[in-house]
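TICKET: design request
STATUS: open
ATTACHED STRUCTURE:
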């Protein structure tokens, strides 16, 4: 993890995503923030795992030329039938939409210069980003 947390471009892209979508799952580090991980207790880790890695949250993707009904029966017999469906677990894995801001937000993300770039001491990255509507709202997003 040390490498990805020291790469200037990775720091920038993660920072942008964290600031743009702070109230969603995308506002968090998927592998955990190394500065916060030491505060995680074993009990909290177990609780998180039982909620988020439960078959109630599963999505099954299949591909190939085989009878779908027998394949689904196999999944049910060897996976799903061994667990009790939990609606609360399913809800906790839903990705919520980021609430809209009432005014523009300005953020600064700092990192070390890229040592492999020419003129490493004169680097600046500027980004103007917009939080759009839900991806299915093409009319609002592209007009």
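STATUS: resolved
RESOLUTION: sequence designed for all positions
ATTACHED SEQUENCE:
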């Amino acid at each position: 993890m040390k490498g990805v947390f020291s790469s200037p471009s990775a720091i920038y892209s993660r920072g942008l995503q964290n600031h743009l979508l702070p109230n969603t799952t995308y506002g968090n580090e998927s592998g955990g923030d190394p500065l916060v991980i030491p505060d995680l207790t074993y009990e909290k880790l177990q609780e998180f795992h039982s909620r988020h890695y439960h078959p109630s949250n599963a999505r099954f993707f299949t591909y190939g030329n085989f009878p779908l009904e027998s394949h689904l029966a196999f999944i049910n017999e060897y996976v799903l039938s061994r667990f009790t469906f939990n609606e609360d677990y399913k809800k906790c894995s839903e990705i919520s939409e980021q609430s809209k801001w009432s005014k523009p937000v300005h953020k600064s993300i700092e990192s070390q210069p890229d040592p492999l770039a020419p003129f490493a001491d004169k680097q600046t990255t500027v980004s103007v980003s917009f939080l759009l509507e839900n991806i299915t709202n093409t009319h609002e997003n592209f007009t």
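CLOSING REMARK: The two ends are 40 Å apart (CA to CA). Residues 1-24+96-142 form one domain.
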